[in-house]
Amino acid sequence: MEDDYVEYFIYSSTSDSKDEIIKLKDSILEVLAPFLIDYLWHIDRFNLQIANSSTHDRSFLTGKVVFGDNIEDEWFIVGLLFRLTEILNVVACVRDSDGELILIEAAEKLPKWAQEPGF
Questions:
Q1: Cα 110 to Cα 72: distance, rounded to the nearest angstrom
Q2: The CATH number, out of the four listed (3.30.70, 3.40.1000, 2.60.40, 2.70.98), of the domain defined by the range 5-115
Q3: pLDDT, tens digit (0-9, with 9 covering 90-100), for 11-58
Q4: CB 2 within 8 A of CB 68
Q5: 46 three-state secondary structure
Protein backbone atom coordinates (compact mmCIF):
# COMPACT_ATOMS: atom_id res chain seq x y z
CA MET A 1 0.00 0.00 0.00
CA GLU A 2 1.25 3.43 -0.93
CA ASP A 3 2.09 5.65 2.07
CA ASP A 4 1.51 8.96 0.33
CA TYR A 5 -2.23 9.18 -0.03
CA VAL A 6 -5.18 11.31 0.95
CA GLU A 7 -8.58 9.81 1.68
CA TYR A 8 -11.74 11.89 1.90
CA PHE A 9 -15.35 11.44 2.90
CA ILE A 10 -18.26 13.68 1.95
CA TYR A 11 -21.56 13.53 3.80
CA SER A 12 -24.79 15.26 2.89
CA SER A 13 -26.15 17.49 5.64
CA THR A 14 -29.69 17.02 4.38
CA SER A 15 -30.16 13.45 3.18
CA ASP A 16 -28.25 10.20 3.14
CA SER A 17 -30.46 8.11 0.87
CA LYS A 18 -28.65 6.43 -2.01
CA ASP A 19 -30.69 8.36 -4.62
CA GLU A 20 -29.82 11.68 -3.00
CA ILE A 21 -26.14 10.73 -2.73
CA ILE A 22 -26.10 9.94 -6.46
CA LYS A 23 -27.52 13.42 -7.14
CA LEU A 24 -25.00 14.91 -4.71
CA LYS A 25 -22.13 13.21 -6.55
CA ASP A 26 -23.30 14.77 -9.82
CA SER A 27 -23.57 18.19 -8.15
CA ILE A 28 -20.09 17.90 -6.67
CA LEU A 29 -18.53 16.96 -10.00
CA GLU A 30 -20.34 19.88 -11.64
CA VAL A 31 -19.04 22.34 -9.01
CA LEU A 32 -15.48 21.00 -9.19
CA ALA A 33 -15.26 20.51 -12.98
CA PRO A 34 -13.66 23.93 -13.67
CA PHE A 35 -10.89 23.14 -11.16
CA LEU A 36 -10.35 19.52 -12.15
CA ILE A 37 -10.29 19.88 -15.94
CA ASP A 38 -6.81 21.39 -16.26
CA TYR A 39 -5.16 20.13 -13.09
CA LEU A 40 -2.19 17.81 -13.67
CA TRP A 41 -2.28 14.99 -11.13
CA HIS A 42 0.93 13.26 -10.08
CA ILE A 43 -0.40 9.69 -9.79
CA ASP A 44 -4.15 9.37 -9.13
CA ARG A 45 -6.97 11.74 -10.02
CA PHE A 46 -9.76 13.04 -7.80
CA ASN A 47 -12.50 10.42 -7.66
CA LEU A 48 -15.76 9.74 -5.86
CA GLN A 49 -17.48 6.48 -5.03
CA ILE A 50 -20.70 5.86 -3.16
CA ALA A 51 -20.19 3.98 0.09
CA ASN A 52 -22.40 2.77 2.90
CA SER A 53 -21.63 3.00 6.59
CA SER A 54 -21.08 -0.38 8.23
CA THR A 55 -22.54 0.87 11.51
CA HIS A 56 -25.37 3.11 10.26
CA ASP A 57 -27.83 2.83 7.43
CA ARG A 58 -26.25 5.80 5.69
CA SER A 59 -24.77 6.43 2.24
CA PHE A 60 -21.92 8.88 1.64
CA LEU A 61 -19.20 9.66 -0.89
CA THR A 62 -15.58 8.71 -0.54
CA GLY A 63 -12.38 8.82 -2.56
CA LYS A 64 -8.69 8.14 -2.27
CA VAL A 65 -5.80 9.68 -4.18
CA VAL A 66 -2.22 8.44 -4.10
CA PHE A 67 -0.03 11.50 -4.65
CA GLY A 68 3.49 10.11 -4.28
CA ASP A 69 6.07 12.90 -4.17
CA ASN A 70 3.59 15.64 -5.09
CA ILE A 71 2.09 16.80 -1.78
CA GLU A 72 0.46 19.65 -3.71
CA ASP A 73 -2.18 17.13 -4.84
CA GLU A 74 -3.10 16.54 -1.20
CA TRP A 75 -3.51 20.26 -0.47
CA PHE A 76 -5.37 20.79 -3.73
CA ILE A 77 -7.92 18.20 -2.59
CA VAL A 78 -8.23 19.91 0.79
CA GLY A 79 -8.97 23.14 -1.09
CA LEU A 80 -11.57 21.40 -3.24
CA LEU A 81 -13.29 19.97 -0.18
CA PHE A 82 -13.26 23.34 1.54
CA ARG A 83 -14.89 24.91 -1.52
CA LEU A 84 -17.55 22.19 -1.54
CA THR A 85 -18.47 22.88 2.08
CA GLU A 86 -18.95 26.55 1.19
CA ILE A 87 -21.14 25.91 -1.86
CA LEU A 88 -23.07 22.72 -1.08
CA ASN A 89 -24.75 21.52 2.07
CA VAL A 90 -22.07 18.92 2.86
CA VAL A 91 -19.61 17.96 5.56
CA ALA A 92 -16.16 16.73 4.53
CA CYS A 93 -13.53 14.75 6.37
CA VAL A 94 -9.99 14.23 5.09
CA ARG A 95 -7.14 12.06 6.31
CA ASP A 96 -3.80 10.87 5.07
CA SER A 97 -1.29 8.24 6.17
CA ASP A 98 -0.50 10.36 9.26
CA GLY A 99 -4.14 10.62 10.39
CA GLU A 100 -6.70 13.42 10.47
CA LEU A 101 -4.94 15.94 8.25
CA ILE A 102 -6.75 19.13 9.28
CA LEU A 103 -6.62 18.30 13.00
CA ILE A 104 -2.88 17.60 12.76
CA GLU A 105 -2.25 20.90 11.00
CA ALA A 106 -4.42 22.83 13.47
CA ALA A 107 -3.21 20.99 16.60
CA GLU A 108 -1.46 24.00 18.13
CA LYS A 109 -4.57 26.13 17.68
CA LEU A 110 -6.98 23.64 19.27
CA PRO A 111 -8.00 24.07 22.91
CA LYS A 112 -6.18 21.78 25.32
CA TRP A 113 -9.25 19.56 25.85
CA ALA A 114 -9.41 18.84 22.11
CA GLN A 115 -5.78 17.68 22.07
CA GLU A 116 -6.42 14.80 24.46
CA PRO A 117 -6.67 11.23 23.08
CA GLY A 118 -10.21 9.94 22.99
CA PHE A 119 -11.72 13.39 22.49
A1: 24
A2: 3.30.70
A3: 998 877 888 999 999 999 999 999 999 999 999 999 999 998 777 678
A4: yes
A5: coil
Pairing type for strands 90-96 and 59-66 reads: unpaired
Structure pTM?
0.82
Task: Give DSSP secondary structure letters for 50-113.
Answer: EEE-SSSS-EEEEEEEE-TT-HHHHHHHHHHHHHHHHHSSEEEEEEETTEEHHHHHTGGGS-GG
